[in-house]
Write a structure and sequence with these properties.
The structure is a homodimer of 896-residue chains. By secondary structure, the first copy, chain A, is α/β, with parallel strands linked by helices. The first copy, chain A, is built from 35 helices and 34 strands. The relative contact order of chain A is 0.07.
Chain lengths: 896, 896
């Protein structure tokens, strides 16, 4: 906290002397304000003077309205600013003009951005014309100010200012605003004043202090605008931070031909190449560069007009990079031949650029005055975000398309194909050589063969753990789920008035959840060389501290995971083997069995196919541990739905087989299957099932050992709630293991553990640990039960509203809920280890691939995280970042 | 723990000197052994000598087989016994005979009971004949011993001994065993020996030590017999206690006409009257009294034969009562004119007797030697069990019937009526004046009008929180749910081969879950005068420590609850008002509304009827707090089922209205409604709903205040998971309250609180308390989520297996799971009070009426429990018992 005075002030000049470098005060000053202060007071760069109204003031305003003491503080700082500039706000002869900009801790579109030229009024505009001897400039500035203030602060529609401007150009018979005369601009300004009067019922504020307060309040209020809130939700930014406001003396890039304005990057933000890059316009204000009205020029071009200034700018760039030890993004203005730096920040970059810069900067870079600087490998690791890796790992669309619908981004990557509505149609189309997008209301095991051949999957219902989402994520197939505006009707779907028929082409962006009509061009995934370098460095950092495994159910997935750096399998879901089209009938035989002999025969058939599956997986993970979870889902998931059968019965009657299936489906149907007869409870109902699975697993391991391989098997019991339950299940498993290793000279070490996925298991982990060799926290289910949120129901229906209304800071299924679920994970880890200090602990929920959650798991003392193969690189990086954060106390820099 | 020697022995003689009174060593000696030791070593009553093999030995045996050191200890005690009796086991001239009896801490049918006459063999029987000069007696004893040992220890079918006995009687042409000659009995004994050889392949053990070890092992093993386990599950007795074994010198009530045997109660166990009561047989062994072969005589009659012994026995009774300070149950034997006490224990008693004795004993009773004794009121309270109150509160069947099927005992009490299978048929029948039992697969809101007119409800599916169970319990209607053997098929049901047609009479015992074919006679509920006395004393004890409220949803229920002693309503479920037949259409209008206007109109209609409901309830609870929970269940519960509509659509097509209902039902259908869009989440989806409810509630309160009443309103938000959620909902509620009290001079104090029913809410109770005036723990849902047990699915399918296999010690929906859910309740209470020390805490799950759970809630510091009206007396008693237990450290005596 600041301790400069007894009462912490609300307003700080850029040159305020802080106890620590101002760039560390982003919480208080916002990013923009902190960096302006850093440039002014530490780097001594040419920055127009000004002051920052702190986020404290914003929070106070949002809670209780305009703080009384704020007026006085602002007045004091305005007075100082006027003194240092030798001009006064609203002075009718030589007015000071200021810009007002928002600046939150994190850059945030959707908030009020900028008001320029504040301080002009119908009197001072004349003074400006006089002192600049440029009436045209003065009225151009005034009309810009009125329009900007009217639109942004007073909420008047922009078109009401645009149309008169167009009309003025037409009247004058010119194409650009720059060609309008002073007279035309004065008339326009008068017209704008009338627009404001008409729209607001009040005259345009003429007193600069009223203008200033209006602009500041508008910034404060925009913090809670709908777009800003939505952005914070998406970017996981806290709603309680508030924004700062920066008030800065204006400099004019549109003063004359010896002036200009631009944005500059100290390196190329797209490629990462160590070459400065910028866009520049002569005789223009900043908004012109952003608006793209005129074609900008690059820095080389600028150097032709302003060779001295270019040298000065490149020196500033070097100083900034050397100071921030990172690529910086800047805005600058040249006013009548003098360079002014308007703002800077550590620049955003693409995934490829992030990787390249991070590696490059460890090699040493020339700074100002013959110095040089470099970053450590740890710092390099901290410079790369999960999103950066995602970008280079998945194909992306080459451009932007028109979004037809939006759903939950269930599995990242981009896909293009023809729409089909049934699994069978999808398979037929694929056999004809078409690229297929499968569109379903939701998917079930019966759709798996169609999902398998699809480029991408789109569902209208379901959450991020729905069947479609989980299966797609497991395979790395792009998928969007819960796109509620998609209405499927036979072999077409509609979104609003748009109809998409079977065979029409759509494009899915599984990273953003966007459905695009028509064919988008794809860019293949192409991780640069630095990808492997950074991940190898990350592995060194996290080695022995936090392992990374993958969730994989097939040999192919396992191979894929291993190639991406997985150090084992943390979750092999055996039900996925049951769902394969050739297995499902056998599973049904088992469920429908009328006699023990029939059941035993069906189990024996399943055993054979399971053994083959296990062999593939163990072979792919040779020498690395493979955690096999025994069957978990409720049995009715393997049967047709009761409703479908009942409807068919009403329509056409049922075959004998279908009648048997109906009976079984009704018997096994549950009101709340997610908290029904699942997991180890299945084992209690059908003990032969688990025995069969262990038998298959042990036989697979034996086959591999015979081939000279080193299978490492861990058997995991799902959904345990009591020690006694685990002891019973452990007994079944141990019996099969003992049978399998009987007579072996060297007994393989097969460990037996359990998922911790009910709140009770976490609370009573002390008891459960007595029967477990390891725990794996199933944070998906743990989140469902801790909140009482059924993902399939709550996530698509409630979550958007919950996030937007701030009822939850994050979607707890994406990032672990630290205060609730996270506390249970920590409790479970602590109590488990209290009983058994060497207890191995892992996590295999989807949180295992989420960087922030990984950080909590590291804190909780877990040995490894396990995630879908495609998240393994991200998990390796995030694990290293967690380790570094905890040893340095610093978290990752935001550069995505 | 015993510290008599360094190694704690496995065997203790009855006269062993313990550090504390032997009756306190029931854990170690079992109930029977402890009481035998008490009578022997403390009371110095005439008890045949013997010894007890401890439960430690049993546990050791069950874990690791026969403990090696046990042989030696038994041998030592047998030697001492032989010495004190001056006879030896198996002595061919004058043999010592012993009885071997099981004796666990709690009396437990299903375990091996008794083997008499052990020590006889084909040699010693002759010695016995010789020393008693009674060959007939000796061979009668021998044949009894072989049969008993063969049946109980060797597991031979009883019929194999019964048939030869019948044949012998026929051969001899006599009617009773007593008439058989010595010769006939000897032949019979030889025959029995042959039966044993044939059935076991081995000769009958002739060595007394083998006999003894066999009998002891049989007792140990019977601890884990199926019936014993089932009994422990039902009676909530731990599976790890083990049983003790008592070996005692035989005395013979069948010695001659100067002998006899009997059972005696120090008071009347049926009525509680302070008059000793007993059954007696001359010249008989104990088993004859129990078997009921001959008609027994009472104590008066016995006094005619044995006036001295009767006086002696009554003196023993007085000494026992005075010593145990309670009614005792005894077994005694007279051998040739001498009285022997074979065992005693505090006697079981009916509900009415328990109440009467408890009150009587506070008044003072004459003891032996002109002393007198009495118990305190606290002790009296501790003498009455919940089951005792249940017995006197609900009608009971007058006798025992043949059980047709068994289900979950969902709502206590007995009911008789004609079977109907639809709600409409039930209503028609009731209008014809019939008594109705509604039988359904499961019930839904559409069945409510039929349930309302039924004497009892039987469902084939569903758990203890299914719709049928909850509604029936709320009304006090007897109900059995989840009776899976009941197969409903149109207008009949079958159980196995028995068919029950519409209109057939069945009887339901909702206290035991038994369905009985035909009409059982009912005894009305008739609480004796002592019922009120005990409960008033209980109220005094718990006053200011633990309040008792009721869960009630109608004025009638509220009145009922108040009459039963409820101090307010802890849970008024507003959805029950929505489900009434005249309300359901209006609720559907609201859900189906296409426009805001339609929705508002439907809400307005609901508001009016809700207001009337609230007025009734508030009037019934005038001056006492009423906690109204805003709407909780998922909306699809108010709609017809999708499947029914889809089937109807396939069969006959749907009306326009039905199509609209189908669309809505599909929209609101959920995969896991229990953890879906419920509770406060509904408020987020349809904010007008909660506002309407609060408006109705406030209007009702205003109406009552206008009548001079004192309504006390508490508004409760269900299913909260975050502080922010509660703050939002609190806002809606507060807005309506503010509107309602605007302009009032004296603002009524309406508090706003929340259910704590998700694990997250309990964990983050510190934050949630910031927005809550009170918490009410919803332990039903909390149990569902903590375990991941959907009651509707798991309870009927898994729970019996889980309890029998010891995977759970109790059904956690009946008695709170102390280690898991209980810990969350304690954590929630502690964290809530850490934020707000005065936070009012209650519980409104069904555990609120369960004595053991009430004990935990008192420990957790809760202010009140709330339960269904019919459980209120039980809760008042249990609350007082919890208070007394915690102040004295003693828990309730088991006298049920």
């Amino acid at each position: 906290m600041l301790v400069d005075s007894c009462i912490v002030p609300y307003v700080y000049s850029f040159s305020h002397k802080h106890r620590r470098p101002p760039m560390e005060y982003k919480d208080l000053l916002g990013g923009k304000g902190a960096n302006l202060a850093e440039m002014t007071s530490v780097l001594k760069l040419p920055v127009p003077p000004g002051f920052t109204i702190s986020t404290d003031a914003c929070r106070a305003y949002l809670e209780g309205g305009w703080p009384v003491e704020l007026d006085e503080e602002i007045a004091k700082h305005v007075f100082q600013l006027e003194k240092s500039m030798g001009r006064k706000l609203g002075d009718p002869f030589d007015p000071l003009l200021v810009s007002v900009r928002s600046g939150a801790k994190f850059s945030m579109p959707g908030m009020m951005d900028t008001v320029l030229n504040l301080g002009l009024n119908s009197e001072s505009v004349k003074g400006l014309a006089h002192v600049t001897s440029d009436e045209r400039f003065a009225y151009d500035s005034y009309r810009r100010f009125i329009a900007m203030y009217g639109r942004i602060v007073l909420g008047i529609e922009g078109a009401l200012f645009e149309h008169p401007l167009e009309a003025a150009r037409e009247r004058a018979g010119v194409k650009t605003d720059a060609e309008l005369s002073a007279e035309a601009l004065r008339t326009l300004a008068d017209h704008y004043l009338a627009v404001v009067q008409k729209e607001t019922g009040k005259p345009f504020p003429q007193k600069p202090r009223d203008q200033l307060r209006g602009a500041i309040e508008a910034v404060f209020s925009s913090w809670n605008g709908a777009r800003a809130i939505a952005y914070r939700v998406r970017e996981k930014i806290g709603h309680d931070l508030g924004t700062a406001v920066n008030v800065q003396a204006m400099v004019f890039g549109n003063r004359d031909a010896n002036s200009g304005t631009g944005v500059g990057f100290t390196r190329n933000a797209a490629t990462g190449e160590n070459v400065p890059y910028g866009d520049f316009l002569i005789n223009a204000q900043g908004e012109d560069v952003v608006a793209g009205i005129r074609n900008t020029e690059d820095l080389d071009h600028m150097g032709k007009h302003f060779p001295e200034i270019k040298r000065e700018l490149l020196d500033v760039f070097r100083r900034l990079e050397s100071h921030y030890r990172d690529m910086c993004d800047t805005e600058f203005t040249i006013e009548q031949g003098k360079l002014w730096m308007l703002q800077t920040r550590v620049g955003k970059r693409t995934g490829a650029a992030a990787l390249r810069m991070a590696v490059d900067m460890t090699k040493g870079t020339r700074g100002p005055d013959r110095t040089s600087w470099k970053i450590t490998r740890e710092e390099a690791i901290m410079r790369v975000a999960a999103e950066h890796l995602d970008q280079v790992l998945h194909p992306q669309f080459a451009g932007k398309g028109k979004v037809l619908a939006k759903g939950l981004a269930a599995s990242p990557g981009a896909a293009v194909g023809k729409v089909y509505f049934t699994a069978d149609d999808a398979v037929d189309a694929e056999e004809r050589g078409e690229k297929v997008i499968l569109v379903r209301s939701e998917t079930s095991p019966e759709d798996v063969h169609g999902m398998m051949v699809s480029q991408g999957i789109l569902t209208a219902r379901g959450g991020l753990v729905s069947h479609a989402a989980v299966v797609a994520r497991g395979w790395g197939t792009p998928a969007i789920v819960g796109a509620e505006s998609v209405k499927i009707d036979g072999k077409k779907f509609t979104v609003g008035t748009v109809v998409v028929n079977e065979g029409d082409i759509i494009s899915l962006d599984g990273t953003t959840g966007e459905v695009i009509l028509g064919e988008m061009k794809l860019e293949a995934a192409k991780p640069p060389a630095e990808f492997d370098i950074i991940l190898k460095w990350a592995d060194v950092v996290r080695k022995g501290k936090l392992g990374v495994r993958a969730n994989a159910d097939t040999g192919e997935d396992a191979t894929n995971a291993r190639n991406l750096g997985a150090e084992g399998i943390g979750l092999c879901r055996t039900e996925h083997m049951f769902l394969a089209p050739d297995r499902l009938p056998v599973v049904r035989e088992m469920i429908l069995a009328n006699t023990e002999a029939e059941e035993a025969a069906a189990l024996e058939n399943l055993r054979k196919v399971q053994q083959a599956d296990f062999e593939e997986i163990l072979e792919a993970m040779d020498g690395l541990p493979v955690t096999v979870r025994l069957l978990d889902p409720p049995l009715h998931e393997f049967l047709p739905s009761v409703q479908e059968l009942r409807v068919k019965e009403a329509k056409t009657g049922l075959t004998k087989r279908e009648l048997a299936e109906l009976k079984a489906a009704e018997e096994w149907a549950e009101h709340n299957p997610m908290i029904g007869t699942r997991g180890v409870r299945l084992g209690v109902v059908k003990p032969g099932l688990y025995a069969m699975q262990v038998k298959a697993l042990m036989a697979a391991a034996a086959t591999l050992r015979a081939k000279g391989k080193k299978p490492i098997v861990e058997v995991m019991i799902p959904l345990t709630v009591t020690r006694e339950e685990l002891a019973l299940a452990r007994g079944w498993v141990q019996t099969e293991i003992d049978l399998a290793v009987k007579g072996l000279k060297k007994k393989p070490n097969v460990t037996i553990g359990t998922m911790i996925e009910t709140p009770r298991a976490a609370i009573r982990a002390d008891e459960i640990a007595e029967e477990a060799d390891f725990f794996s926290f199933g944070t998906n289910d743990l989140t469902q039960m801790t909140f009482g949120f059924s993902r399939d129901d709550v996530e698509s229906r409630m979550m958007p509203a919950y996030l937007e209304q701030g009822l939850l800071p994050r979607n707890p299924f994406e990032t672990i809920d630290v205060g609730g679920v996270g506390e249970l994970v920590k409790l479970g880890a602590q109590r488990g280890r209290a009983t058994k200090p060497g207890l191995k602990l892992g996590v295999c929920g989807e949180h295992g691939g989420d960087p922030e959650s990984i950080n909590l798991f590291y804190e909780a003392g877990l040995d490894y995280v396990s995630c879908s193969p495609f998240r393994v690189p991200i998990a390796r990086l995030a694990a290293a970042q967690a380790v570094i954060s905890h040893s340095t106390g610093k978290s990752r820099t935001d550069t995505k």
